[in-house]
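Supplementary material to the annual report.
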Amino acid sequence: MREKAIQRLTEYGFRPSLQRIAIVEYLFTHSTHPVVDTIFNELSSSIPTLSKTTVYNTLKMLAEKGAILQLNIENNVTRYDGDIKPHAHFKCNQCGKIIDLEIQGEMKNLSIKEIEKYKIFEQYYIIKGLCPFCQEK
Amino acid sequence: MREKAIQRLTEYGFRPSLQRIAIVEYLFTHSTHPVVDTIFNELSSSIPTLSKTTVYNTLKMLAEKGAILQLNIENNVTRYDGDIKPHAHFKCNQCGKIIDLEIQGEMKNLSIKEIEKYKIFEQYYIIKGLCPFCQEK
DNA sequence: TCTTTTTTTGTAATGATTACAATTTTGTTT
DNA sequence: AAACAAAATTGTAATCATTACAAAAAAAGA
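Predicted assembly:
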C-alpha cells in the first residue's frame, strides 16, 4: 500500500515525502471518506511532529490536481477519498451516514455536451435523501 | 415567477411566507448558484427587516426536503439552485467559475445498484478541472 | 379577542479552514 | 562535504461561513 501511495504521488508530480505518503496511504487503507481531523489524529501517533496544517495543505493540493478526491457533501466538513474512479455517494439526511453506491456501467457514458473541451481532474455524483433504515422511522 | 415559487413551497409542505416566497423566487430568476450573502443582500432592499439567519434557515430547510438544491462544490461556500432536475456543474480550479453543463439523455439512467431502496431528495453531479479558456493559460 | 403555534430576527458562539512567517528538510552546486 | 537554494513542514493567529439560542413578531385557531 505504501508503494501504491508513492506511485500515486509521483504519478501526479508530487515528491513523496514522509507525510504525503502517510496521508495517501491512509486514504488507500480507509475508504471511509475521512475528514482532516480524523486523518490527523490517526497519523499523529506514528508521526508525532505532524501538523494539522500539513494535512490540510497536502489534501487540498492533491485534490486540486486530481490525485485524490475532495468530497464536499455536507457544507461544514470536507471529506477525502483515495478512490478517483468516478462513483456516487449517498448521504442520509437523517442518520448522517455516507454510503458508497456502486455504479454499474460506465459513468463516463453520461453524454455531456462539449465535455471534451474541459479538462477533468475530479468528478463525483452526490445523492441525498433517506437511507433504507431511516425510512422506517 | 412568484406563483411558481408559492407552488414549489406548498408542494413541499412549506407555508408560503413573504420571506420564503422571495427567496425561492430569487432562485428561480437567478440561475447563478448564488450564495447566502448574495441572496440576502439582493433581497434586503425589498424586505428591509430580512435577517440573514432566515435566509440560512430557509435555504437549509428547503434543501433538506428537496424543494431546492444545495450545492457544496467548494469547501468554503454553500450555493443554492432552484433547478431540481438532476444536472451537472463544472467548477474551474483556475478561474473559479461554475458552469452548468447540460446532460443529454436521462441522468436517471445511471444504473445504481439497489437505488430503489433509497429515498432521493437531492442529487447532482460535480466535475472539477480546467475550463476551455483557462487551458490556454 | 385570547391563546397557541409557527416564523422571523439579532446576537453570540462555534469551528473548520487559511494566512503567514519561521523552521526544517531536501536537493544541488562548487 | 560544505554551502547554498528550493521545497516542504510547522505552529499560531486570524478569518469567516454557519449555527445555537432566546426573544420578538406574525399567523392560525378557538
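The interface with chain A takes residues 64, 66, 70, 72-75, 78, 88, 90, 93, 101-105, 107, 110-113, 115, 117-132, 135 of chain B (CB under 8 Å).
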